[in-house]
Write a structure and sequence with these properties.
Elements lengths: L8 H29 L5 H36 L2 H5 L1 H4 L3 H24 L2 H22 L1
Helix pairs in contact: 2-5
Length: about 140
């Protein structure tokens, strides 16, 4: 969400490079947690549900965020109040409207993630993962 603050090909290249470098590790960590925590007999259903939820994000993006960007954020950053409010340092135009949506989505995603870390479900999952990891290490050493 940081690399779109200013329209710069260098910031874009750095942001994409960071994303392409970290994304495989994040996906691998997700798969590792599921494989360690979910019993083997249920893993297919859990992986299927996770894939279904991830696939559901595409229509939400297309039919909710797209029109919201087109009818609110792009005009906000071309002729609306955003030009006077943040246009001096953020820039103006349709591309800046889309960048603003990208930044807001990143902020919302970060806040939701931080709230999820505080949830009871995450605490239970973390304890279960750590206890199963300790059990696995004990079996390997024995």
């Amino acid at each position: 969400m940081v690399f779109v603050i200013q329209p710069s090909i260098i910031l874009l290249a750095i942001g994409i490079l960071v994303w392409m470098t970290l994304h495989p590790f994040i996906e691998a960590a997700e798969q590792t947690v599921i494989q360690k925590v979910v019993p083997f007999e249920r893993q297919g259903r859990v992986f299927g549900l996770a894939q279904g939820i991830e696939s559901a994000a595409t229509p939400i993006t297309a039919f909710l965020v797209g029109p919201l960007t087109h009818f609110y954020f792009i005009p906000f950053m071309t002729t609306g109040a955003g030009v006077a409010l943040i246009g001096g340092w953020f820039g103006v135009g349709p591309d800046r409207g889309m960048a603003l949506v990208f930044i807001l989505a990143g902020v919302i995603g970060t806040v939701v993630t931080l709230l999820a870390f505080r949830s009871q479900a995450y605490q239970q999952l973390s304890k279960h993962f750590l206890s199963s990891e300790a059990t696995t290490e004990t079996k390997v050493v024995s």
